[in-house]
Structures are given as structure tokens and as C-alpha cells.
Amino acid sequence: MPLLDWLNKQDAVRTVQKVPYRLLEAVPELGVGDTYTDNMLIQGDNLQALKALLPLYAGKVKCIYIDPPYNTKSAFTHYDDNLEHSLWLSLMYPRLELLRELLTEDGSIWVSIDDNEAHYLKVMMDEVFGRKNFVANLIWEKADSPRNSARQFSSDHDHILLYSKNPDWIPNKLERTEEANSIYKNQDNDPRGLWLPGDPYANKPYSKGLFSITGPTGREFSPPPGRYWRISEEKLREFDADGRIWWGPKGDARPSIKRYLDEVSNLVPRTFWKKDDVGSNRTSKNEMRALFRDEASFDTPKPERLLKRVLEIATNPNDLILDSFLGSGTTAAVAHKMNRRYIGIEMGEHAQTHCQPRLKKVIEGEQGGISKSVNWQGGGGFHYFRLGETIFDEYGSINHNVRFAELAAHIWFCETHVPLAKSADSPFLGIYNDTAYYLLYNGILGDRRPQSGNVLTQAVLDSLPKHTGRKIIYGEASRFGKPRLEAEHIIFKQIPYDVRAV
User: Fold this and answer.
1) Mean pLDDT value of segment 148-167
2) Is residue 412 classed as helix, strand or coil in its secondary structure?
3) Among 49, 57, 238, 316, which one has the highest count of C-beta atoms within 10 angstroms of its own C-beta?
4) What is the pLDDT, as a whole number, of residue 280?
5) What are phi and psi of 385, to 5 degrees?
């Protein structure tokens, strides 16, 4: 398979291994609504945030949608085509590697892009995801009208490159539309309802498909040369007796097999997405204006209907969605309204100034975008996170800058997927689903020697708050053997080796 090469590619390929694991620090005052939700909004560099998510969500994300920078001349301050093109490719490669690891085995990734990098991105994604996992290049009609100021061509479309984790991925079919159903009629008042005359011929040889049949007016019909009836003579006569054959309004037309509307399935997705169906750039800018009154903050927002179409095809309710270039927050907003779980990552300050307020409005029941079409009434919640300290130092030990409360919050979230309600100040972190969690670290038991109290002994166990059910205890070492741990219902996890960031 041909591979894409560019300046400093080898550095980009090795980038993932060099990215340190960081703590995810909850910011409770910026979270909104239901505290037991899995929904997350993360502010910080998306490469480091994706690495931080890897221990928690590897293989668990059903659908990834990203809308990365398009690498137009406005994407970088000082544009040099060769240099900036290489920078863009180096930006994308390690992120795609991490995104692949986060996908479920039946998951898919959708990447919006324009002609500047679409074809280079296609070759790169062939390398990262495997060419056999390429599904489609979807064409989104983004423009409402031509741009007559264009020097050569007015660009009417963007691409959405779609890849699956495995080649046997099957998309959901789309619900039938009024337009799709409008071609069904009932010309003979058939009590079975609306129908469409179907082609009676088959192109491939069919042993029972060569015969002549006489219609109601006495006219005889045979298949054209090289073609065959789709069904046998016996079956055709059976259908005719049952009123399932249409001979035309005068009874002298070739026989057609009726296809009833209530017998047809939903629609197979198509690769051309019209603006009338999923919205355009103008649609999304109007949505932004209604929400923020400062549409200039986002040059290329995507309409909610576009993301609705993606999630209808790629997911079902309660599936986990990830957008690591969250931008204006559209993916998270649509996922929330469609009862999907989500993780959104945004580096800039508008993670707090735009994404967070937008999701807050969604929870409060805002009625823009797709709200009315999905009967959105509000509710739910999300947690807000920022990137904290790196967990490990260069020697694999816990970073000395990581304090007890920070490590406690990280371990609690790793174990429960729910942020710790308040800053931890004792070894007992709390009980979740009848399991008690404890952390022995950094001399939390009060001994003046930092390492003291970090080893599970009988004295330490006696000092911990009691719990009769299962207990998970993190510490540097345990003096209990396996039988004793089992008798006490203890699962011991050793620091740093069992801290989930590897």
C-alpha cells in the first residue's frame, strides 16, 4: 500500500509515545446538571487529553466525529505551503493514532475536511486505520449560493471521510422521508395501501424466468432478449390472483410487481448530503448567532442537522461519542439532545466561554437546531475537566508534584467514571456501587515520614473506616497474603504500577 511521506514524518509517528499521561482535574463549578452522568467537557490540548483518556476509554467510543483545522492560508499565522502542510500532517497523525485506539470494534470515525487536505488525509487514514476500513467519502453541500468573487471555482461542498474500526461495520439505515415516500401511489385502490410498480425483469439468467404470459386484454408478454422474468410463471400467476400485479391503467401494459410502502425498509445512507436535508454553512451561522450573537467566533461551525445525520447512521441511544476538535460544541449539543453519551475536547478559552454555556443551555431546554425534531425538553448533565499534572516522572514513579488530593481524584474517576464530589483529605475516598475505595499515599495517615502509612498492614487496616463489602485499596505495598486479602474482601492495587495510565 502506498504511504504518505512528509517533512518530519518520523517525529510525528513517534509523538504518541512521547506524550505524557496527565491527570484529568474536575472543575465542579463549571459542570452542570446531573452529577451521575458520563458526559465530559475537557479543556486542554487534545493530544494530551486523548492520551489521558486512553486508560479509561480505550475501545469504548462508538463514534468519533472531528472537524479539524482545514489548513487554509488562514489556519497558520505565517503560511508557507511546504512547511505548513507538513505541520498540519504532523498535527493529525498522532491524534488519529490515539483516536483509533479509543474506538470500539464496531465503531467509526468521521472527519470533516475540504479540498486543501482531503486527499492527503485519505492516504494518511488509509495508513492509520487500514485501507480496507475506508467506508465512504461523503459530500456535504455546504453552500447556499455561488460565490462569484471566487478566482476559479466557487466551492460548494466539503468532504467527510468515513472509516470503520473493522471492515464488517454496518451503518444504521435512515428513517424514510416524505420525499422518499411520495413516489408511492395507489392507482387501483388496493386495500393494502400505497405501492410502487417494480421492475419484473432480472438481468441474470433464471431457469424459470423464460415464459410468456397473457394479460387481462389478451396481449401476450415475454421478457426482452437477454433478460428473464424475476419470478416463476407459477409465482407470477399467484401474485396476479392476489392483486399484486399491475397491468397498467388499461390492463394492456407489461406486468409490474407491486412493492408496498409498508413492506419496504428504511433508507440506505447515500454519499451526497444535500443542504436541504442536513443544513448548510448559513444554517450553522444562524444557529451560532441565535446562541452567542457573535458568529465571527467560529469560521466553520457545522449545522446540528449534519451531526444528527452522522449520529443516526453511526450510533444508537446511550452510545459514547467523542469530538476532540469540539469548536463551538455542536457535536456535544447534538449528542446530548439525542440521548448519547459524549466527550468533547477543546483547547481554547471558548471551551469555557462558548462550549460550556452552550451545553448549559441544552440542559435548560433550548429549542434551536434539532431540538424540535427530536422533541428535546432539557435535562441531563456534564462534567467539566482541565488537564492537570503529568502522572509519572521519567523513571516511572508518581510525579512528586502530584499531591494526594489530585491522585485521589484521578484514581476515583478511573475506578468509577464519576468525578470525586469533593477534594479528598483522608485515605477513605468513598463508596460507589457498594465498593469502598482507599488510597494510601504521601503520608496521608499523618506520620511525619512521607512513606509511612503507605503500606497496608493490620494497624493501617484497623485505622481505616470500616466497610463490610468489597474494598479496593491503593498503596505502595501490602503485608497481607492472598488468603487474608480475600478474607477481608480486599483488592489491593500497587502504586505506581496499578495506577491506570499505561
Assistant:
1) 92
2) helix
3) 49
4) 92
5) -130, 155
